[in-house]
Amino acid sequence: MKYDFSFQNATKIYFGKDSLNNLEAELNNYGKNILLAYGGGSIKRNGIYDKVIAILNKCNKNVIECSGILPNPALSKMLEGAKLVRENNVDLILAVGGGSVVDCAKGISVASHYEGDDVFQRYWVDCAPLGDHKLVPVASVLTMVGTGSEMNGGSVISDTVNKIKNGRVFPPIVYPKFSILNPEFTYTVPKYQMVSGVFDIMSHLMEQYFSGDDDNTSDYLIEGIYKNVIRAVKIAIEDPTNYEARSNIMWDATVALNQLVACSKTQDWEVHMIEHQLSAYTDCAHGMGLCAISMPYYRYIYKFGLHKFVRFAKEIWKVDATGKTDEQVALEGIDCMEKFAKECGMVTTLKELGATKEMLPDIANSCILGGGYKEVTHEEILEILKNCYE
């Protein structure tokens, strides 16, 4: 392990078929007023809403609802939730849904008692340190997997007016206090959303993997999780109610971004930065945007981290290197990933996501620059976007 690091994760996880049974005991640790944050109507159709409400009522909680949180949570909805928190003296924000709902709940917590009208600029764009204003505890009941937001400080919010989508990893004080993970709650997620979430997991792992030239434990952990995701999603596509496959995917998503495999890693995150602006313009599913960008991006930068892309091809995709150059092996590994994505029904072109050629310069020019093995420019981002248009 080449670099010094600190690791802290205080989120309590309740995992399994009976995990919701722990909600009552946890709720007793908080005050009377609960903000229930959720998205559309799926949790009402599948019965999860009724189960959660029954427990809240049993605990004699006063429930204030903040519904309609979108897959790319909007700044306006976050501010609406923050207003509800202030007006109702909320003691706990309970997010019931996927990662976007949890992301928005964290944003609501940060914004609810912030004095100023620039909360998004200050904390999501400038990434300023948190002040000493009051934060409201957050907890989650997860119904869709991919983001890992249930066990980290990440919060991605979209300013739809100015077309800026930005993520921020807040310190542990913003992490959910507890998260309830029942794999059965993911059974009714449509295939499109499920495989989108799966590529989000894969991308989180690759953003951390494709960096550095050292030999460290984190890379071996990443490889194991990545291989398990590949195996589990194939089973889940064929049998959506296969508990073992669904539970593996759920835990893979959590561990992929709870900071454990980031330890002693320099990391990349350029694919995510590009996708954020892509979805700011198209409102596409996050994982599908990542999938469309990843292969062209990695084909553009692989030579700058050739050793790691060769390892990726051999360890993950079992590419036979006999008689091949390192460049051929690396590119074959990326080809294998693209083939897998297509077989799973993932999107591999920007055109499929609603992007137009006219959008591409604006998307490229609004991206935050960074990168791991290769720090790309706005001009290079535009070239990458053109390569993944169709």
Automatic annotation (TrEMBL):
What GO cellular component term, any one, is given? Answer: cytosol
Return the broad EC class: oxidoreductase
Can the keyword Oxidoreductase be found in this entry's annotation? yes
UniProt GO MF annotations: alcohol dehydrogenase (NADP+) activity; butanol dehydrogenase (NAD+) activity; metal ion binding; methylglyoxal reductase (NADPH) (acetol producing) activity
Which parts of the sequence belong to the Alcohol dehydrogenase iron-type/glycerol dehydrogenase GldA domain? Answer: 11-183
Q: Where is the Fe-containing alcohol dehydrogenase-like C-terminal domain?
A: 195-388
Question: InterPro entries recorded for this chain?
Answer: ADH_Fe/GldA, ADH_Fe_C, BDH-like
The cross-references to Gene3D superfamilies, in alphabetical order and at most eight, read: 3.40.50.1970, Dehydroquinate synthase-like - alpha domain (1.20.1090.10)
Name the UniProt key words of this record, in alphabetical order. Answer: Oxidoreductase
The record, for CDD domains, names: BDH (cd08187)
- Could you tell me the EC number(s) of this protein? 1.1.1.1
Q: What is this protein called?
A: alcohol dehydrogenase
